[in-house]
Amino acid sequence: MANYTEEQNFPILKASILGAKTASLFQLQTGIKSSSAINLMDVDVVLQNDSVGSDVAGGGDVKFSQRMLSVAPIAVREFFDPKVLNQKYTQSQIKAGSADDEIVFEKEIVDAVTDKVAAIMENALWKGDTTLTSNSNLKHFDGYLKLINASTGVTSTTAATFTTANAIASIDSLYALIPVEVLDAEDMCVYMGRDYFRTYTTALKTANLFHYNADSSDGEITIPGTQIKIIALNGLNTSKTVVAGRKSNFWIGTDLEGEEDNASTVYIDAIEKVKMKIAFKYGAQIAFPQELTVLKVTA
Question: Which residues share a beta bridge with 230?
Fold first, then answer.
């Protein structure tokens, strides 16, 4: 006789999902159906002589420029056959009758799907590449890493590896290359994957820098001796890239804020299935590439 297994312990538990933090950090531009300009301005000021008889001609300049922020239309569609669950352990949760026109645990399923979408978009914001036509999650728009690689003016440095033996030195080298014009900006940060963040914080602990606090909080830690935070982002996991830049330099485009968090479900009588759909638009852009500093690890 087979051992008894209890299958009626509800609610259903969800699998762990990578956190999506990037979208909460950066600039959001809404109302974009296809593309929109990020309007930029730079001012050049020249100090001039103001004594009697001095030249009254100006010497400065105001420069206006644009960078285009394009969004891609994205959807998630799932079809569920409620009849299938009549023969499973979930049958105890199905309403009485044979209509079979709704899915059980609808809220839990919708929440799980929207959480998954958030994790996928976290990854796409950094690793999106429209040339990856076979990758259904990354092909819709170009993410920050591709935009950075295609831009001129970005300051770059390399390291052969990123280990506990050289992590501190590698980040110090990156810090030393940040343009001084933005070095003391209040929103200047360094962004790396959770994998590198673990290596870096382990290196700090091993170094026993008793003058500085090596404890991180919510995946954030301050580079010892500076005011600049390092922020761990799951979208940069396995990327072998560390990026330094102002939060205000990174832009996310969408049509309506929060659309990716909203799912609709409807029973379609013609196919006798429940359809769930999420539709939204998303895109990424960098405003000032020349203000960015990047560390690329080659091995």
Answer: 190, 221
Cα 225-188-214 angle, rounded to 5 deg:
35
Plot region of 105 (φ>0 → left; ψ -120 to 50 → alpha; else → beta): left
Query: Closest Cα to residue 295, out of 110, 121, 154?
Result: 154
- Grade residue 236 by pLDDT with cuts at 50, 70 and 90: very high
What three-state secondary structure class fits 13?
Answer: coil
Distances (CA, A) of 200 to 19, 25, 159, 233: 19, 21, 14, 14
Q: Residue 11: its pLDDT value, please?
A: 43
For residue 228, what is the DSSP state? P
Burial class (CB in 10 A: 0-12, 13-18, 19+), 140: buried
Residue 87's pLDDT is 57
d(CA 114, CA 70): 23
155-206 tens-digit pLDDT? 999 999 999 999 999 999 999 999 999 999 999 999 999 999 999 999 998 8
Asked if 100 contacts 282 with a C-beta cutoff of 8 angstroms, the reply is: no
Q: Which two tokens stand for residue 71?
A: 């969004």
Q: What is the mean pLDDT of the chain?
A: 85
3-state secondary structure 150-214: HCCCCEEEEECCCCCCCHHHHHHHHHHHCCHHHHCCCCEEEEECHHHHHHHHHHHHHHCCCCCCC
**55 has a pLDDT exceeding 80:** no
Angle between helices 194-207 and 167-177 (to 10 degrees): 110
What does the angle CA 155 – CA 157 – CA 161 come to, to the nearest 5 degrees?
A: 155
Q: Region 78-96: what's the mean pLDDT?
A: 66
As a residue count, the chain comes to: 299
Q: For the whole prediction, is pTM greater than 0.85?
A: no
